[in-house]
Amino acid sequence: MTFFKPLLLAVLAAASLGAHAKYNGEDRGKPVMPSVNNAKMQAECSGCHMVYPAGLLPAASWKKVMTGLNKHFGTDASLPAADNKEITDYLVKYASNRWTAKTAPLRITESEWFKTKHSNGEINPAVWQRESVKSPANCAACHQGAERGDFEERNIKIPK
Amino acid sequence: MNTTHPLSRLLACLAIAVPVAAMANPILEGYRTQAKQENAAFKDFTVAAGQKLYGTVGPNQLSCASCHTDSPKATGKHAKTNKSIDPLAPSANPKRFTDLAQVEKWFKRNCNDALGRACTTQEKGDFMTYVLSVK
């Protein structure tokens, strides 16, 4: 029994560490912005919204997003099959490399890292309602360098 | 020497005919051919029908004007994301209606969003006829 005790403690410690993984395992990638760009993705996504850096979500999320484009947050954003495949392959390849949870949210704003970074203690909830911000999906309203993958705290400017 | 040389008359005719031919939009002409094939009673595309379609509010409480504004010449704004949308009318934005794949992609998406269904060839042609007429 004395022999097993340290082992048991080690297992318990590892388990509790796992449970307390940063952001419950829902962490954005490092780097968040891939070093390689994809012109097709850039062109297609930017038709309607800012181009979210691939590292903001895990591969499983991007697969879900890309197979549901005909109902993309209430909008038909469907793409020809070849374009869809090229963009999916890119997003999956450069998805978050620090996401360890089995989760795959569709919205970046549902991830634990996002919720922690943008909690009510950090940001007045009324900010999200401003016409200049419109929604938490509009990263660039406050993070001017968002499209370049720059989410540095010192570069945040919250609009009126 | 007041008589006009026959060749200059021909050139004058060409000068008028060539710009008219250049103005015809190949994508619109494609829809016209398709509409004739689909419907033996097809007459023509009209500005009035296109304009009416542009302002039609569908089941999702959206119309073309919701994002493209009341004027196809104006810069629009995405109703949900605030993203700026370049003008739709070629008179303000010559890149519009020059690439069939782009045109088909956006008709598919936006007819679904605004009308809750696909657009017919007649509707696509009417719509283009209206937007191309806005000077």
Write the layout of secondary structure elements.
The complex is a heterodimer of chains A (160) and B (135).
Chain A: H1 4-19, H2 39-45, H3 59-67, H4 81-93, H5 112-117
Helix pairs in contact in A: 3-4
Chain B: H1 6-23, H2 26-38, H3 47-55, H4 64-68, E1 76-77, E2 84-85, H5 100-115, H6 121-133
Antiparallel strand pairs in B: 1-2
| Overall spatial form of chain A | globular
Count all strands of chain A and give the number: 0
On the 0 to 100 scale, the average pLDDT of chain A is 91
Oligomer: heterodimer
Instruction: State the strand order across the main sheet of chain B.
Output: 1-2
Distance separating the two termini of chain B:
41 Å
Just name the CATH architecture of chain B: Orthogonal Bundle
Please write the string of helix (H) and strand (E) elements of chain A. Answer: HHHHH
What does this structure look like?
- The complex is a heterodimer of chains A (160) and B (135).
- Chain A has helices at 4-19, 39-45, 59-67, 81-93, 112-117.
- Chain A is mainly α.
- In chain A, helix 3 runs antiparallel to helix 4 (81-93).
- The mean pLDDT of chain A is 91.
- With 135 residues, chain B is mainly α.
- Chain B has a single domain (26-133), classed as Orthogonal Bundle (Cytochrome Bc1 Complex, Chain D, domain 2).
- Helix content of chain B is 55%, strand content 3%.
- Chain B has six helices and two strands; from the N terminus they run H-H-H-H-E-E-H-H.
- Chain B has a two-stranded antiparallel ribbon.
- In chain B, helix 3 crosses helix 6.
- In chain B, 24% of the residues are buried.
- Chains A and B meet through loops of A and helix 5 of B.
